[in-house]
Amino acid sequence: MDNSVASVATQNGREDTNKFFTAHHKPSKGGWAAAIFIIFVEMAERFAFYGLGGNLMNYLTNVRGEPNATAAKNVNTWSGVSALLPLFGAFIADSYLGRFKTILFSSVIYFMGMILLVLSVSVIDDHKSVFFIALYILAIAEGGHKPCVQTFAADQFDDNNPEERAAKSSFFNWWFLGIVTGASAAIVVIIYIQENVGWAAGFGVLAGILAMALILFLVGFKKYRIDKKRTEGSPFTKVVQVIVAAARKWRLSETRGGRGVCYEDNDGKKLRQSRGRNIERTNQLRFLEKAMIIDDVDCLSKQRNPWRLCSQNQVEQVKLVIRLIPIWISCIMFFAVQQQIHTFVTKQGGTVNRSIGSHLQIPPAALQSLVGIAILVTIPIYDRIFVPLAWKFTGLPSGITMLQRIGVGLFLSILNMSVAAIVEVKRLNIARENGLMDSPKATLPMSLWWLVPQYMICGISDAFATVGLQELFYDQMPEEMRSMGAAACISIVGVGNFINTAIISIVQDISSRNGGHKWIGNNLNRSHLDYFYWTMAGLSALNFCAYVWIAKAYVYKNVVEDEAKEDKELTNFYDLPTGEMKSQDHV
Hints:
3% strand
């Protein structure tokens, strides 16, 4: 195919499609026809995950008899491990198996783990250890499934096709919408079955859904765009190579002792400039650029030693990875806040009047569906109304940048905890006024509608921050490390859960000193969840300030496609004039 390509610059993580004109034939594979299969598979997987995790707190406290704080720590630990294992799964996918095979194997493990979970609550119910073994088998399956499925779906859209490139941005919104649909359906349907029919029946339905998802994934095989290239080892090796090469040449500079800069991105014997998508040079993390400076030893070598000399493109790829680390750290607190919905807010909901009419009683965990409803409403409005309106003011196809979108979500999480604290004060006052302080299982004369605002704010903040993070960690990672980017994004959730557990432990320790009452006790009417929520709001506010400072300094990648210059030798000198640097849009 003959492509006439000039320059493609990604501003704010997006290519300027107005400057990118190329002839493309309609692909026989990939696109929405393939992505829709993967979206439905992920909907089924999220249905299973939230059908289990959404009511796990109540299972551990009501069936297994665990104290509230212990059950919350167990839920947080399992959720955290489930979110951190994708780092290992992404490594396997990017380095050895590829995304398709990793998803396939993980789906089989997922199904087997769910079968064992069904047995652990029915046939072998008296063995608590079997239940937790099944839980962590499911966590292993999550580790392979999570980092690959979204990336595999996004790969169905070709970055070199302007139409598909534009569709990819919208894809992330509809992908998240699909996830929320599956999760919300599970919270309503499965939790009802668990509470009114039985836990074995509820988990059995989840096993059936996973079997259907596996079959559906295989049905769509012929439509998938699968990269047939053999993996070339771990992409982490290239990161380490840049760091080692830069360290070996730490005294060298382009103007003093240097013989030029390496453009070549290949490890082949011909030392020529390559053709393809190259990342434009930036002024950040300049110490890494020593890795691409050619010295006398490199000039005397017949073949490039990747541990001594790295290409400019490779160095810029490593910069991309390192620039994402501060963003990763600054979003941990957000997910520590979001986890409250699955633990203490659920227990909080169990104390209020959840009756609708004279016959319908809503299970406490089913209130989590309000988060899904908020997202289901927010995503279409954002994609179809907000983005076109914002585009008129910003000129960005996405309306606002990815970092701005994440920032809105982080700000809303502060509001979420503040509202939760105010509602908890109201709940405690009602318990006190009605003499129910020592009746933890009594239903308070307080409507469930008091809890709706915090659930809705949680959902809206998710629609901004989570989708923004997913797109950022896909778009800004090097192409061969995109599974790792997805895993890094997911791992924020895991670390957030562990941070949440640590905060609970610290709060429990401090509040119980000198004979004081613990803020989080088995009797919520005698506890002080409001103090805990205010603590989380304060920590989130400090974290938000740090995020804004980090985001202002962030530089998005610029991708440039160059025509190959034949017979250009690697030993060409390179001096980048400051005036020719392309400006990078910040937040």
